[in-house]
# Entry
Amino acid sequence: MPSYRYPVPPASEITPRNIFLNRRSFITGGASAIALAASGVNVLAQDQDARKLNAVASALSTDEAQNSYEDITTYNNFYEFGVDKSDPARYANQLTTDPWTIKVGGLVNNPREVGIEELLTGYDLEERVYRLRCVEGWSMVIPWVGISLASLIDKFDVQGSAKYVAFETLERPSEMPGQRAIFPVLPWPYVEGLRMDEAKHPLTILAVGLYGEVLPKQNGAPVRLVVPWKYGFKSIKSIVAINFVEEEPTATWHKQAPREYGFYSNVNPNVDHPRWSQKTERRIGGGLFNQRIDTQMFNGYEEQVGSLYENMDLTKFF
Ligand code: MTE
# Structure
């Protein structure tokens, strides 16, 4: 992955004021927001006025300073639109997200293809402010809007033999320039997977928005995974298929470079990437004199997720 080269002003200075104010109002909306949430909410809205989502603040959020909307939507990794950090913001508008369906299958008693709106009906949206630590050494703090993946899994009546969940991104070269390249940088479609207990962990969410609005296309509209204790590449974007399976599924970066990227990909400052250290990170938006900060075990979520890996050698299962 290309490395960081992008000095930007401090996040606090460039968070657009209207977005900041919006955010305050939807969080303080409290109980009334719950009543309005998810059912009938339009996560595909293109029109600016309709993009606002009602969400309740989650107790699982970090209270660290959030990156600006600008940072979060202009410095992205979404190789389907190019490898440069600015490519997704430039090209993702080509993507048609409405209509959008997700095929849910594998070891479930009621496999089906379901529209995104139907999939979300009945859920309350939550705001989850999480750290996202990219394997390349930078990080951001992002106020996602989403639902817990666990609640969705319950809806599909998964069979006992399912041990993993496999996810797949859209493959549509006509709208994704990176998928048209003669020498593709990655095998398409982008795929990822989680062990069932990771998928059902309360920190794991499907995000449909950020900063109180429908997810921008460069961030993986209309729905992407967010697993905050793992390196950013596990958080697969623009999901079109979810399969429950018995064997460990393929994961794109693991397949591409198995020595460099393991299936687990837990943030771990004690296990270096073969070509660079993972001990520190640079928070995007910290300005020119931005100091690197220490990367925390499991990206700071050790208390919540450490027990999932208790008897595993993390140098082997990285
Ligand atoms: N999902 C798809 N389909 N394609 C990608 O290239 N990049 C991953 C992940 N999800 C990627 C993807 C990587 S490397 C990171 S760091 C995060 O998305 C970045 O998410 P963000 O752009 O919303 O910050």
Remarks:
- Residues 2-13, 24-38 have pLDDT under 50 and may be disordered.
- Residues 76-80, 132, 134, 169, 190, 219-220, 232-233, 235-238 surround MTE (CB under 6 Å).
- The domain at 12-309 is CATH 3.90.420.10 (Sulfite Oxidase; Chain A, domain 2).
- The chain is about 20% helix and 20% strand.
